[in-house]
Protein 1
Amino acid sequence: MKHGVLSLFCVLWGAVCLSPVWAHGGVGIEKDPCVRRAGLYLVHFAVYQPQFDPAAEYCAAVPNAGNTILVFDVVDPELRTRPLTIQVDEAVSAPAPKTVLYLPPQTYPTGVVNAEAHLDLPGQYTAIVTFDESVDTIQFPLRVAMWSPGVVALGA
């Protein structure tokens, strides 16, 4: 099962890489809502849940709780030689957030970081990319299995 999901993901990721501008309504990477900046550098964030919808890509809101594939694309080749840390925290009311995924510092020569996180509870999470040897940090807020205010307003 896991190999099937990974194979499906690789096919989907290839399609996304071939047409990144088309996938976001024709906007360039600078205006892509799934891209964040750390200084001069860009990182693209995508979320997949192939068990629910094999063709869907998300970046800020995921419709279902459960196993989730997170993909970070380090756009700039210079960053691919710098170690980076990936952490996903669940926003909870306790004093400290609960970490649901931690990848220790390492380099990613291809520029692509794939990780599977268990986002089992509906709520808000934050995916954090930290580049070692600097204070550059990028945060990607993520809403899991929560109704969007825009969707609720449309239904009223």
Note: The two ends are 40 Å apart (CA to CA).
Protein 2
Amino acid sequence: SNSPAVFIDSSGRAFATDAHTLPSARSQGEPLTGRFNLAAGETFRQVLMAVDEQKYLLASDSGYGFIGKFADMVSRNKNGKALINKPDDKKLHNPMKVADVTADWVIAVSNEGRLLVFPAADLPVMSKGKGNKILNLGTGGAETLIGLSLMKEGDLLIVNSGKRHVKMKFKDLEHYQGERGRR
């Protein structure tokens, strides 16, 4: 492919390289640290390839996030580009492909069992930053955002807790719909 591959590290920085310059599948490969200057203690967490206009939901455990375009993640700088600002003790969620900002709904779940459903259009489209509050996690820092998903009307959400699971249709989630940033 002639598209760039974007690698996101655990600190929220994005690094890019042309995918066709990576070693073929028949070789042993090469370490990415030879191409990029990764900060001490950080690890690569995600790799993405998409068209420039593809949008992704980017968020951290701190309860903040935003929608970003793939083109804004590409940086030719060897030190990468600051993409997501987050507290050091929080982790990044996997970027989620947004099919249609006007039709998708964001599902956010906290470790205390709180569930919030709101339109993806309520989140800002940004090139980098902290983003807006997705779910109000209260004070004290004990509550974190553990689950994040996107769905459309007509999709099915399966919530797992230990050995139990609940299948919820979109109409079952009406009770959990609210404004972005609520609890």
Note: The radius of gyration is 18 Å.
